[in-house]
Design brief:
The chain is mainly beta and 62 residues long. The protein has a domain at 4-34. It is built from no helices and five strands. The protein has strands at residues 4-7, 14-17, 25-26, 29-30, 32-34. Strands 2-1-5 form a three-stranded antiparallel sheet, with no helix packed on it. A two-stranded antiparallel sheet has the order 3-4. The termini are far apart. The mean pLDDT is 77. InterPro entries: Desulfoferrodoxin_N_sf.
């Protein structure tokens, strides 16, 4: 079962609901759907490189 996050446009209150078919209300109005935070973000290839001296691509310049 999925989840959705909602935010009140008037007071800024945020809620996460399990029932994706029901839109919660706050301040007398339907709340606006907002994206959920990412659980896992794919690593960037640039940040995944190893910069140790034993690298196969080591050009010997330090």
């Amino acid at each position: 079962m999925g989840q959705k996050a909602y935010q009140c446009e008037d007071c800024g209150n945020e809620v996460i609901v399990d029932d994706v078919n029901a839109i919660p209300e706050c301040c007398g109005k339907a709340m606006k759907e907002i994206p959920l935070d990412e659980c896992i973000k794919a690593s960037n290839p640039e940040s995944a490189r190893s910069w140790e001296v034993e690298d196969a691509c080591d050009d010997g310049v330090h």
